Amino acid sequence: MSKYTPGPKDINNMTRTEFLAMPCRDWDEDVGIFTSLVILPTRRKHDSGYRCMDFVACQSSLAVCRLSGCSDVIHIDGICGYGIDWFTKYKGCPKLIPPVAWSIDCLYTSGLLHLFPIDKKLKAGGALSSFEIYAIENK
Q: Which residue, of 14, 60, 94, 122, has the fewest CB within 10 Å?
């Protein structure tokens, strides 16, 4: 995962303050493939009137880095839900999209939500007003 290394503490034992202290990537930096995402609400108000969220990339049960901080929306598998690089893959709008089994649990210590796909890995889009996350093949 690029220049970031997983922290030493299991995400289940981290506090919100510890998640906030994680290094933050540049808005367009590719941090590679990771296994799950912790949703970290911020105190900032987005132009839409909703709160901004940040997202922490995780490898197994270790936090790696923060991904956004400026987004009021998370688009799972992209804005249309077609997955990463869908136009190249399907040569247009797909009629059938293979399903992804997504799960969300709640971390005990911080109370934050933890999002992950079953049998897939994750890749993050850029840190924009709308944040895109993609499930990719587990290779």
A: 60
DSSP 7: -
Question: What does the pLDDT read at residue 1?
Answer: 45
Q: What is the pLDDT of residue 2?
A: 65
pTM: 0.86
> Which residues of the chain fall short of a pLDDT of 50?
1
Pick the closest to residue 56 from 117, 3, 128, 4 (CA basis).
4
Rounded to the nearest 10 degrees, how much is the dihedral formed by the CA atoms of 120, 134, 34, 117? Answer: -40
Closest CA to 74 of 112, 111, 37, 118: 37
User: Which amino acid, one-letter code, is at 105?
Assistant: D
- Alpha-carbon Rg for the chain, nearest whole angstrom, is 15
